[in-house]
Amino acid sequence: MLYRTSPRHEAIPETHVPHQVYIGIGSNLGDRRANTHEAMERIKGLPATKIVRSSSLYESEPLGDAKTWFVNSVIQLETELLPDQLLKKLKAIEEAMGRKRVKGKRWGSRIIDLDILLADQDVIEKRTLKVPHPEMHKRRFVLLPLAELAPHVIHPQLGQSVSTLLATVKDAKRVTLLPRS
Prior knowledge:
alpha+beta; Alpha-Beta Plaits; six-stranded antiparallel sheet; two-stranded antiparallel sheet; 10 strands; 24% helix; disordered N terminus
């Protein structure tokens, strides 16, 4: 059996402790709002997973090769899935929604993009999964919705709160709050 350590350093069986995970969601193809909501519905259907809260929707200036603006948001999950298992499920959702990955091409347009931003206070350095997300502290479009949900959460590598990271981010790309529809 896997065990986690509580803040008081007590061993707790892994299967009984839900992980607190923040997922970044982005879309800039098709009906971006509908894509975001569909992804959330699909995530709600994952085993042993529930969405605790979701941020507002933000529209952000594209990065890299993308031409159209993105709709971005962040959701907070409680899940018994391990980060590797969750990543596989998120990639399956992206694929089911029509996301096509182009080898060697980053930051292109996409129907849906689902990124694990934070998972508890874990630091994971694998070829296929890096948590915290290695670019999150540099991106206003991630930090704004994340700060809405978790302003006081500390980045486990940088030792700064999400609100501090947002206040000091150098990203000049425009991000605006979308009105509720």
